[in-house]
Every structure is written in structure tokens, then in C-alpha cells.
């Protein structure tokens, strides 16, 4: 009695399921006959999917399982239910995948979706070396044209605001468009320009503010080379307005950011990997420098030394192609005249190289001083300004106008003034005034929110410093020195090297800008001295300091917090040392039994003499000098001892690991903090234990560290 209603329900469900299954089978046949008709194929698959859902309502899994257990169900019903289940599964697969699984094993029924020709081209550009070359050439063309347009914009805005092509050499002349204002028009034009580019930068591209190169360095180092496409347009207009209205900044920073933005945009359109995108950004930067200064080699080394901060064959080749392409375009439109006309140069006496080294020292002091004043003025402007950021350039433009009214030679980039200083047309006192005024004017321009580079101002300062130094040296010893103009050229490279700490770029770019080969040796002397002194005075450059103030350190590798523990927390006792008088044969036996692969060596007084490795002992035993007694004495292990890189007990494990990976053996000796005694031994296994068990080496558990027995010195003294 209890089984009849259940059996009747199963009969009704199986009949409906069979009907739905037969309908689904007909739909599946339609799907199969649809062939390559994509629209009909999708409609049929959707119909099968809907009927599959209907069938599932009547043929659920519990009913099927129950039907298998009921032996009294007629065989035809069980067959219909089994058939419905199989077709239901097929229909569900068709609904999910849009294809008939029966065609998987039949090659004739497989469909091939063609790849568009444009997509194949993009793939070649993205993945092959030839594609990267093509993209680099395109970036070079874009950067060259961008540099030309940018320079034309500067000339146009300068003429618009002043009525002259370059107001820095015009003196306190009046604007022909506003003659009734006289020279006081310089009080107004920075304010007017600030009202234009201030809102433009604030609204569309805040990263366009400042000198631009640090933003490109940050994008390459930590953002995979991604720079917004709008930066190129905003930077061009903002920097041209800043320089044209009297901002005392250079054009290399903007053109680097413009070219880099073009390279990044093209690379992202081609969907390049981050590594290749960085290279394309460097191509844009190199092309911009090459075109705007007519210096293709300088563009290459600027991009490699400051932007990529690395030299590889792949990147160097494409950066060169981009730089050459941009330079060719720049020369075709702007001409091939050199950047400046240097005076005749000749070293008259070898003692003069000492003067060049002294000039390098002064250049380092000027470069570092310029860097600190630049960011000090920027901090003062941040502290003093309380209004909206978009209004800041206009408000600060009034202060800039007062400075330009007092020293009109600070208007714009000031290349004519620089050329006059190289030609020796200024007195020493006025040269020093121009040096100080340039530092103030450039710092104020960037501090109020202007957009422009610091490369040209550093060259300007170097020319003033070098010309003044050369004039004094020539007056003191006329028979030993050349013309002051030669020292002006050397000073340009020295100040730039002191500020940016890029000696290769400084040498190459000054050589290309001047075209004077005879100045290479004096320039190299001063630039190297300036770079070394600058590194001693400060760890940052004028570019990296802007990023460090934001908490970004490009030079610091990512360090695991567990690797900051001192070596003393994981070092083992010093293994038994080898006497220096021990023969190599006997020492090799002890090295073979040692688990370290290297052992320390001590002399007769117990003083530490260095380290001997198993490899060195094996090579010595295989050598002819240890096989006989032709020399009359037996070879000892003291002759093989080498002093490894010193590890101290307070050194972080990250530094110790670097030394472990660059030396033979499985361990290194550890000295005390005063480096007067050998107190321990650190191995690769100790570093691995630190990585896998961080709590064992952490210094945040005073109770645990207090209970650890102190490691006794081995008695081996340095």
C-alpha cells in the first residue's frame, strides 16, 4: 500500500522526463547541424539548456537513486530514466560550453577560430626583439617631434610675454607690447602664467609639477614604467609657460618626462611586459635629451645611468636607436649647430690638473648646496602657503617677478648669459652674484609650483663658478693656467656631477655640448672628484632626494624584516683554526673532515691571519710546486690564507648573506664590533634557520635572549 503512490509518481516523472529528453535530443541534433553558423549554434544550445533545467525538475538525483533501488519498477521506465539522465548530462554540457562533446575526438568537426592580422602584428611587436626595435624607433620619432614642439612653445611663450626671443640677455628692457610698464612687466607675467598652468597641473597631472626626472625614475623603478598619457601634454604646456614667463629652470626635465610618457603610452597600447615597458620609457627619455640638446650620446647615457640605472645589451641597443632617431629629427628641423661655442682650450702645464681637482671639490660643494637650498625653499613655500594649490604658482610668481626685476639675467633658461660667462665677459664679483641668484631663482621657481628641469641651472651655476675660479687662478699664475672660459666648461660638468652624481653622463654630455675633445681629461678629473666628494657629503642626489622625502628609496633593495637581526644572534662558535705552519697536505685532511669547507688560520702568537678554503688546498696539492722539494722547503697553509670580507657581530644578516653568496665555502668568520678578535662563525644554514624560524632570531624577546648563554670568544685575536 505504501509503495503504490511512490511507484505512480515515478511513472509520471519518468514519462515526462522521457518526453523532455527526446526533445533535448532533437535540440542537440539541431546544434550539431548548425555547423559554423555561430548565431544558430548559440540559440540551439540555449534551448537545450532551458529544457535540461525542466527535465531536472522531474528527474532529480534522489528519485533516480530511489528508482535504482526499487526492483519492482518496470524496466521500460528505468530505461527511460537512464536515457533521460544521459541526454540531460549531454544537454547541460552543450549549454555550458556551446559545443557538442561528440566532436572532440573528431578532427573533421573541430572549429578553428582565426586570429586577426592586427593581433598577430601586436604579438610580434610585444614578444620579439625586432618588435622592440620597431617600438623604439617609433618612440624616438615621437620624442624628437615632442622636443621640437616643446622648444617652439618656449620660444612662442617667451616672445608673447616679453616681446623678445630670450629676455635674459636683453637687460631691463621694456616689453614692446606693454611699453608703458617699462621693465616692471616682469612683475606681472609670472603671475599671469601661474594662473594658467597652476589649475592645469592641479586638475589633470599633478606629477607634472617640479623637475620631472624623479617622477620618471620612480615610475621605472616601482611602477613598471607606467606613466599617464596626459602627462606629455600637460608637462609641455606647463613647462613652456613656466620658462616663457621667466621661470629660471631648464628644459631637460620636462622633455625627459614628455618622452618617457610617450614611450609608456605606446608600450601600454602594445601591452608590453613591465621589463620591456621600462626600456621603452628609457627610450623616450633618451630621445628627448638627444633632440633638445643635439646630443645623441648624452641622451643614451642619461637614460641608462639615471633612468634605468642599469646597463644591458638589449636595453642599450634600443635606447641608442631611439636616441639617434630623435636626434636626426631634431637636427632636420632645428639644425645641427652645436649647443655652444667654446673657446680654444689647451692644458699649458701638468700642475693645472691640481687646479681642476680643486675646481671639482668646489663644484661638489656648489652642487650639494644647490640641492639642499632647493628643497629648503620648497619646504618654506609649503609652510607659508595656506591657499589652494592651483593658486600657488600665481601667488609665488610675484616673488619671482621681484627677483627677475633685480637680476634680469635669471629670466628663463639663460643660455646666452652662460655663453657670455664662458667667453669671459663678466667680472668675478658679478659671476658670484649670478651664481647665488641662479640658486635662489631656480629654487623659488620650483618651490612655488613651477615646472622645469634642474640640469640647465646646474650647468649655469657651474659656468659661473668655473669662470670665476679660472679668472682668479689666471690672475694668480698666468703662466700656468689657460683662459677662464676653459674652467667654466669644466665647472659645468663638476657642478652637475656634484648635484646629480652621474659622472658618465656629465662627461659625455659636456663633450657633446661643447664639441671640444681636448677638454676631456681635465673634465674627467674634476667630475670624478666632484662625484666622490658629493657621495661623501650626502647619500642622495638632487633627483633621489625628492623621492626619499616621500619615503621612497630607490637604492635600498627589499629586505625581509627577519634579515635585519644581527649576526651575533645566529653565529656558531669558531671552528678549530689551522696553524700557519701546518703543511698543505695535513691541512687538507682537516679540511676534508670539516663541515665548513673553510677554516681560519692563525700564526704562532694566535693572531688571526685569514681563511683557507678546501678548494684552495685542493688546487695547491694539484700544483707542481707541492709535488716535490725543489724549492728546499715544504709548502704551508699560511701561504694560502686569504682575508675575506669582514663580518662583524652587529652586522645585519642581509649583509652577511651577500658576503656568503660571493665567497667559497659554507661559512665565514665573524669579528667583534671593534674588529679586534675573531668571535664566531656564520653559515648558510644559520641564515636558512632564521628564514624558517623567525622567532628564534628576533630581538624583541628580552627574556629569551637573556637566557641564551653568551658565546665565548675563541681566543683568536685579530
Note the main attributes of this structure.
718 residues; three-stranded mixed β-sheet; 61% helix
Short description:
The protein has 718 residues and is mainly alpha-helical. The chain contains 28 helices and 7 strands.
Structure description:
This protein has 718 residues and is mainly α. The chain contains 28 helices and seven strands. It has helices at 3-34, 38-58, 61-69, 75-97, 117-127, 129-162, 189-204, 213-222, 230-244, 252-269, 274-293, 296-308, 313-334, 352-384, 392-406, 415-422, 428-447, 455-476, 484-500, 503-514, 520-537, 544-548, 584-593, 614-622, 653-661, 684-692, 694-697, 702-707, and strands at residues 578-579, 598-602, 608-613, 647-648, 667-671, 677-683, 716-717. The strands form two sheets. A four-stranded mixed β-sheet has the order 4-5-6-7. A three-stranded mixed β-sheet has the order 1-2-3. A hairpin with a 5-residue loop joins strand 5 (667-671) and strand 6 (677-683). The protein is globular and about 95 Å long. Residues 55-74, 91-111, 626-633 and 694-715 have low confidence and may be disordered.
Amino acid at each position: 500500500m505504501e509503495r503504490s503512490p511512490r511507484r505512480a509518481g515515478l511513472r509520471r516523472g519518468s514519462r515526462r522526463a522521457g518526453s523532455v529528453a527526446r526533445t533535448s535530443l532533437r535540440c542537440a541534433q539541431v546544434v550539431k547541424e548548425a555547423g559554423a553558423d555561430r548565431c544558430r549554434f548559440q540559440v540551439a544550445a540555449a534551448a537545450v539548456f532551458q529544457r535540461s533545467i525542466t527535465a531536472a525538475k522531474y528527474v532529480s538525483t534522489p528519485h533516480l537513486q530511489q528508482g535504482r533501488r526499487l526492483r519492482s519498477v518496470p524496466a521500460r521506465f528505468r530505461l527511460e530514466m537512464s536515457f533521460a539522465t544521459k541526454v540531460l548530462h549531454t544537454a547541460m554540457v552543450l549549454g555550458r560550453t556551446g559545443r557538442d562533446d561528440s566532436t572532440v575526438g573528431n578532427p573533421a568537426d573541430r572549429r578553428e577560430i582565426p586570429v586577426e592580422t592586427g593581433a598577430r602584428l601586436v604579438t610580434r611587436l610585444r614578444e620579439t626583439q625586432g618588435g622592440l626595435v620597431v617600438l623604439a624607433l617609433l618612440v624616438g620619432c615621437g620624442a624628437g617631434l615632442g622636443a621640437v614642439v616643446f622648444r617652439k612653445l618656449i620660444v612662442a611663450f617667451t616672445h608673447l610675454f616679453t616681446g623678445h626671443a630670450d629676455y635674459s640677455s636683453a637687460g631691463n628692457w621694456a616689453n614692446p607690447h606693454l611699453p608703458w610698464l617699462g621693465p616692471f612687466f616682469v612683475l606681472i607675467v609670472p603671475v599671469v602664467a601661474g594662473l594658467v598652468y597652476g589649475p592645469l597641473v592641479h586638475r589633470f597631472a599633478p606629477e607634472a609639477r617640479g623637475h620631472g626626472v624623479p617622477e620618471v625614475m620612480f615610475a621605472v623603478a616601482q611602477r613598471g614604467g607606467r606613466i599617464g598619457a596626459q602627462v606629455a601634454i600637460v608637462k609641455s604646456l606647463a613647462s613652456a609657460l613656466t620658462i616663457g614667463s621667466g621661470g629660471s629652470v631648464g628644459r631637460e626635465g620636462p622633455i625627459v618626462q614628455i618622452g618617457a610618457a610617450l614611450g609608456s603610452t605606446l608600450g601600454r597600447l602594445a601591452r608590453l611586459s613591465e621589463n620591456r615597458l621600462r626600456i621603452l620609457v628609457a627610450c623616450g627619455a633618451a630621445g628627448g635629451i638627444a633632440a633638445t640638446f643635439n646630443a645623441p650620446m648624452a641622451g643614451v647615457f642619461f637614460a641608462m645611468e639615471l633612468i634605468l640605472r642599469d646597463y644591458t645589451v638589449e636595453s642599450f641597443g634600443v635606447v641608442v636607436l631611439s636616441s639617434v632617431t630623435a636626434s636626426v629629427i631634431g637636427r632636420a628641423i632645428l639644425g645641427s649647430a652645436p649647443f655652444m661655442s667654446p673657446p680654444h682650450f689647451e692644458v699649458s702645464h701638468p700642475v693645472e690638473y691640481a687646479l681642476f681637482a680643486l675646481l671639482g671639490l668646489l663644484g661638489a660643494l656648489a652642487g650639494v648646496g644647490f640641492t639642499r637650498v632647493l628643497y629648503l625653499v620648497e619646504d618654506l613655500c609649503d609652510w607659508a602657503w595656506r591657499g589652494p594649490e592651483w593658486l600657488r604658482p600665481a601667488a609665488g610668481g610675484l616673488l619671482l617677478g621681484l627677483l627677475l626685476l633685480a637680476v634680469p639675467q635669471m629670466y628663463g633658461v639663460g643660455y646666452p648669459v652662460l655663453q657670455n660667462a664662458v667667453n669671459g665677459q663678466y667680472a668675478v664679483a658679478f659671476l658670484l652674484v649670478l651664481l647665488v641668484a641662479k640658486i635662489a631663482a631656480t629654487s623659488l621657481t620650483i618651490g612655488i609650483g613651477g615646472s622645469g628641469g634642474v640640469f640647465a641651472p646646474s650647468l649655469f651655476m657651474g659656468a659661473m663658478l668655473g669662470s670665476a675660479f679660472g679668472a682668479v687662478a689666471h690672475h694668480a699664475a698666468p703662466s700656468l693656467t689657460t683662459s677662464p672660459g676653459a674652467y667654466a666648461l669644466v665647472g659645468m660638468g663638476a657642478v652637475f656631477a656634484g648635484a646629480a652624481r652621474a659622472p658618465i653622463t656629465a662627461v659625455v654630455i659636456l663633450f657633446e655640448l661643447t664639441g671640444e675633445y681636448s677638454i676631456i681629461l681635465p673634465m674627467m678629473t674634476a667630475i670624478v672628484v666632484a662625484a666622490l666628494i658629493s657621495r661623501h657629503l650626502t647619500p642622495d642626489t638632487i633627483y633621489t632626494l625628492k623621492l626619499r622625502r616621500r619615503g621612497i628609496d630607490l637604492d635600498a633593495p627589499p629586505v625581509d624584516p627577519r634579515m635585519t637581526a644581527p649576526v651575533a644572534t645566529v653565529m656558531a662558535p669558531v671552528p678549530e683554526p689551522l696553524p700557519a705552519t701546518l703543511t698543505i697536505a695535513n691541512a687538507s685532511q682537516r679540511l676534508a673532515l670539516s663541515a665548513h669547507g673553510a677554516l681560519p688560520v692563525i700564526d704562532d702568537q694566535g693572531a688571526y691571519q685569514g681563511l683557507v678554503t678546501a678548494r684552495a688546498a685542493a688546487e695547491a696539492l694539484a700544483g707542481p710546486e707541492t709535488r716535490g722539494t725543489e724549492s728546499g722547503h715544504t709548502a704551508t697553509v699560511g701561504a694560502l690564507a686569504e682575508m675575506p670580507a669582514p663580518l662583524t657581530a652587529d652586522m645585519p644578516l642581509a649583509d652577511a648573506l651577500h658576503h656568503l653568496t660571493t665567497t667559497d665555502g659554507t661559512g665565514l668568520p665573524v669579528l667583534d664590533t671593534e674588529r679586534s678578535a675573531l668571535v664566531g662563525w656564520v653559515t648558510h644554514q644559520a641564515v636558512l634557520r632564521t628564514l624558517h624560524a623567525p622567532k628564534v632570531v628576533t630581538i624583541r624577546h628580552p627574556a629569551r635572549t637573556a637566557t641564551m648563554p653568551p658565546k665565548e670568544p675563541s681566543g683568536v685575536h685579530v
